[in-house]
Amino acid sequence: MNQAGDILIFTKDENRRLTVHFTVDEFRCPCCGIAIVTLPLLRLLERLRDLVGEPLIITSGYRCPKHNAEVGGAPDSLHMAGCAADIRCDAVEPRKLAQLAGRVGFFGVLVYKDGHVHVDTRNAPLVRLDPA
Asked: How far apart are CA 86 and CA 117, in angstroms?
């Protein structure tokens, strides 16, 4: 692990528990195997998990630029900085999960048609439902 301020960087072979409910592997890029995650993202995800009281599934954490392009991510996606995650919770409807994410302090919250919720730690509010 390498730590630069609030940013944690993990190589392919490193795995460990980051919080009570989340591990490095949940944030790993499927393309290169690297995991980058920021402490503010982890803190907010842990708060959300505590509020929901049910497991949150990270469907996308860190993305290297190559993987981000492959999945059609925005060129300036916060996933590439370790500041975003796409999540779902089998026990909570996506719109409700998005509302709860806003309540715990996420400013970037998007609900996608496929049912996952994007959360990020941007500094200005953005809430959209069913983005194009």
From this structure: 5
